[in-house]
Structures are given as C-alpha cells and as structure tokens.
Design the sequence.
C-alpha cells in the first residue's frame, strides 16, 4: 500500500498499524513521536516506524511526502526500531516509482523485482542522528515542556532542576539513566531539531540563532556543525540539490552559513 501527501502543517494523531511504515520527505520537515522519543525528518530523508508501534506524525510548513507500508517479515535486515534514515538517489527513485504501484501487484513481476531492490537498499540505508530521546519521568517531561516553551532561556542546569523540583545531581542521574545523555547534550539535540524546523520555513540562520538564545550566528553554526557534521545552510542545500526543480516550487533556502 502506498500514499502520497502534499499539505501544510498537518498532524496525524497517535495510532498504530500492523505493517511497518516508511514516510519519505520530498520537501518540508516531518516529525514522528513515540513514547520515548521524537524523530525529525528533513527533506531527502525518511522515517522508519516498525509495525504495531504507537506513534503520531506531523508536517511542519509546506510538505510533500510519500508513504509505504511494509509487511514486518518482508526482509530480514529491515530496521528493528524507529529511526530517521538518509535516502540515496537510488532509493529515492525506487520510492518515487513504488508509490505508483497497485496494492496487489503480481508476484514475480516487474513491480515485485523493483520492491525487492527497494527493500535491499532500505536495509543498508545509513541512519541519521536526528533523534531526541524523551524521558519517562514526569518531572523530566515537565522539563521538556519548559525548554520547548523557552528555547532561548540560558538558565543554568541547577535552575532548571529547581523548576521541576529536583536537585541538579538527581536530574543529571535520571537523564543519564533514562535517555543516555547529559543535560547539555540533550538540550543541544533539541536545538538542532528546532533549528531545522525553522530553517526549512525560510528563517535566516541569524534569526534562528537569536530564537534559540545564541549571542550570534557563528556560535549557533558551530553548535550545529558539531551536532550534524555540516553548517546548517549546507546541510539543507545538499538535501535539495539532487531534486528536480519541478518537485520543489517556490522553495526558499536559508541564508549564509
């Protein structure tokens, strides 16, 4: 089964389905949330959602995405957990072709052979580190809400701990136990996700840096490069460079690095 969707600021409430799901973003930012994490899907990436996993999904800004549903036993090396994967040019073309196939294509036919190649490519696709693990502790969930509500707040770790009724040591210990990250690393990951959402909506690097509480654009760019390996404008530009212009009418790239 397949589906194609073009829309703006859409949201699918929490649900589950027997088949695994692959959602590929042609343009726009997609978000997928499960109980213990949030995944972000920039253009030319895809989110893999295992079967029977409760999740919600939403698109931020103008989006174009394609969706495939895959039987859990369709291939042995498919991802076992929720993840964001990088889509190669070959995998992209296979996905764009596969969404036009009928739900019941003939076994052993052309469609069947192309799907087999698609599953092989999917099993080998590199995983992107665009995951924000979510703690289960109710106090830390409150911390998430506070940080999302005030991403530019430069309060110390001690102050944040006090706001949610924990000591700094306890907050650090529970964060490490539940998500495997310290507070600083976790907040930086949150900033990367928020930054990508804003940049793909056309915000400049300088404006995003200010929104996230950085004193200047260079400090923000340094943080972003350390997190994903490239400065923000280059990271996003590479995700539209291989696309045909007809697929991305009116897209606005962010400002300089």
Sequence:
């Amino acid at each position: 089964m397949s589906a194609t969707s073009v829309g703006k600021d859409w949201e699918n409430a929490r649900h589950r389905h027997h088949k695994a799901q692959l959602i590929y973003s042609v343009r726009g930012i997609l978000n997928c949330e499960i109980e213990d994490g949030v995944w972000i899907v920039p253009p030319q990436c895809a989110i893999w959602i295992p079967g029977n996993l409760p999740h919600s999904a939403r698109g931020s800004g103008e989006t174009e995405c394609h969706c495939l549903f895959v039987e859990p036993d369709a291939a042995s090396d498919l991802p076992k957990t929720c993840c964001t994967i990088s889509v190669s040019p070959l995998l992209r073309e296979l996905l764009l072709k596969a969404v036009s196939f009928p739900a019941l294509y003939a076994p052993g036919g052309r469609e069947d052979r192309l799907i087999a190649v698609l599953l092989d490519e999917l099993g080998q696709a590199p995983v992107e580190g665009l995951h924000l693990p979510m703690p289960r502790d109710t106090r830390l969930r409150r911390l998430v809400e506070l940080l999302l509500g005030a991403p530019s707040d430069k309060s110390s770790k001690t102050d944040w701990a006090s706001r949610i009724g924990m000591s700094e040591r306890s907050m650090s210990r529970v964060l490490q136990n539940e998500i495997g990250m310290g507070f600083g690393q976790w907040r930086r990951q949150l900033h990367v996700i928020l930054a990508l959402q804003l940049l793909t909506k056309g915000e400049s690097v300088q404006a995003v840096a200010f929104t996230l509480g950085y004193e200047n654009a260079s400090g923000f760019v340094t943080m972003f490069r350390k997190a994903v390996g490239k400065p923000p404008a280059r990271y996003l530009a590479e995700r539209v460079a291989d696309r045909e212009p007809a697929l991305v009418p009116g897209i606005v790239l962010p400002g300089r690095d």
In short: The two ends are 40 Å apart (CA to CA). The first helix runs from residue 89 to 98.
